[in-house]
């Protein structure tokens, strides 16, 4: 039946390539995209709020805040990929008008996790979290 539809529509000249089949089979419907966006965004907000609550734990609180805040930001960025697609999201992030903010934000995400896990500098992790916020707002 599909072959008949291709013949009648004039698309029978060539069989679709393997890549085209993969792209067609992995595309999401609009309802699924919205659900994925809401789920990722909710997880991102929950991680950020949880990080803020964990900030007040003695000794390890600042490190936990940095980790959960960073994971929340990563999840929030990932949520918008559901709406516009990963390639369009990356193209928009790396447009000339947003390039500096994107580089600063990605660098601060990495440096926050490095300062929390490897360098064990809580003040530095907090500084990078603040810079993450400003880069995302920019």
Characteristic key phrases:
single chain, mainly alpha, 79% helix, 138 residues, 2 domains
Distance between the termini: 52 Å
What is the SS-derived class? Answer: mainly alpha
Form type = globular
Helicity level: over 70%
Number of strands: 0
Largest sheet: none
Structurally, the number of domains stands at 2
Q: Return the string of H and E elements.
A: HHHHHHH
**Count of individual helical segments:** 7
Radius of gyration: 21 Å
Q: What low-confidence regions span 5 or more consecutive residues with pLDDT below 50?
A: none
Q: β content, as a range?
A: under 5%
Overall description:
- The protein has 7 helices and no strands.
- Helices cover 79% and strands 0% of the residues.
- It is mostly helical.
- Helix 3 runs antiparallel to helix 4 (61-84), helix 4 packs across helix 5 (86-93) and helix 6 packs antiparallel against helix 7.
- The chain folds into 2 domains: 31-85, no CATH class; 95-137.
Quick structural overview:
This protein has 138 residues and is mostly helical. 79% of the residues lie in helices and 0% in strands.
């Amino acid at each position: 039946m599909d072959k008949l539809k291709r013949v009648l529509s004039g698309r029978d000249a060539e069989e679709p390539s393997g890549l085209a089949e993969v792209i067609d089979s992995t595309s999401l419907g609009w309802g699924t995209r919205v659900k994925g966006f809401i789920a990722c965004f909710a997880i991102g907000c929950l991680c950020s709020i949880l990080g803020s609550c964990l900030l007040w734990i003695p000794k390890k609180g600042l490190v936990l805040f940095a980790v959960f805040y960073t994971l929340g930001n990563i999840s929030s960025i990932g949520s918008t990929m559901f709406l516009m697609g990963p390639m369009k999201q990356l193209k928009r992030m790396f447009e000339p008008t947003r390039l500096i903010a994107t580089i600063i934000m990605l660098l601060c995400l990495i440096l926050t996790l490095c300062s929390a896990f490897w360098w064990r500098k809580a003040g530095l992790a907090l500084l990078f979290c603040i810079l993450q916020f400003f880069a995302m707002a920019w």
